[in-house]
């Protein structure tokens, strides 16, 4: 008898429940056996935001590493929560699903979620903001304290 077992996911990136994920990350699912590359596409491997909207992305299959790769077309929203879905189910199901080289589909749909890193304040304002803030504080201190700058002080 030939292959009778459904392919299985053995690794995820980002990991299920992971937080602090880079907004420019790709999503990866690693399988335990070779897949039919024509069944790994945007209909069978998708990413959705917290409102359920599908994130535009390219999808490919890397046969050398048994990895399905989803690359969002734009950076993901900082602090956003995203859900990955891999389509599977009975081979008689009418919708598309991921299958192995023998045509056997994933036993069931699989999904997991992750969260994109929130920006740090320095990333929002940049170093220029911090320099300007320092100059403003020094100026206000001079005005409020009534002291003259060092270069204007006499003996």
Describe what this molecule looks like in 3D.
Helices cover 16% and strands 25% of the residues. It has 155 residues and is an alpha+beta fold. The strands form two sheets. A four-stranded antiparallel beta sheet has the order 1-2-5-4, with no helix packed on it. A three-stranded antiparallel beta sheet has the order 3-6-7, with no helix packed on it. Strand 4 and strand 5 form a beta hairpin. The model has no long low-confidence stretch (mean pLDDT 85).
Task: Lay out the secondary structure.
Layout: E1 9-13, E2 27-31, E3 45-48, E4 57-62, E5 67-72, E6 81-86, E7 110-115, H1 121-145
Antiparallel strand pairs: 1-2, 2-5, 3-6, 4-5, 6-7
Radius of gyration (CA) equals 26 Å
Query: What is the element string, with H for helices and E for strands?
Result: EEEEEEEH
Strand content: 15-25%
Structural class given helices, strands, pairing? alpha+beta
Number of beta-strand segments: 7
User: Largest sheet, if any?
Assistant: 4 strands, antiparallel
Low-pLDDT sequence parts: none
Distance between the termini: 100 Å
| Mean pLDDT across residues | 85
Count, helices: 1
Strand order of the largest sheet: 1-2-5-4
The helical percent reads: 10-25%
Q: What overall geometry do the principal axes of the alpha carbons give?
A: elongated
């Amino acid at each position: 008898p030939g292959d009778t077992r459904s392919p299985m996911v053995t690794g995820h990136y980002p990991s299920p429940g992971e937080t602090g994920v880079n907004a420019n990350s790709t999503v990866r699912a690693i399988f335990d056996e070779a897949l039919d590359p024509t069944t790994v596409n945007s209909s069978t491997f998708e990413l959705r935001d917290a409102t359920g909207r599908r994130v535009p992305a390219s999808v490919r299959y890397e046969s050398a590493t048994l990895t399905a790769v989803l690359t969002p077309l734009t950076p993901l929203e900082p602090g956003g929560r995203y859900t990955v879905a891999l389509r599977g189910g009975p081979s008689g199901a009418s919708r598309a699903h991921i299958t192995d080289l023998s045509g056997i589909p994933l036993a069931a749909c699989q999904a997991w979620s992750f969260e994109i890193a929130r920006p740090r304040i320095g990333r929002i304002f940049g170093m220029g903001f911090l320099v300007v803030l320092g100059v403003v504080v020094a100026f206000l201190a001079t005005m409020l304290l009534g002291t003259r700058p060092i270069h204007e002080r006499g003996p």
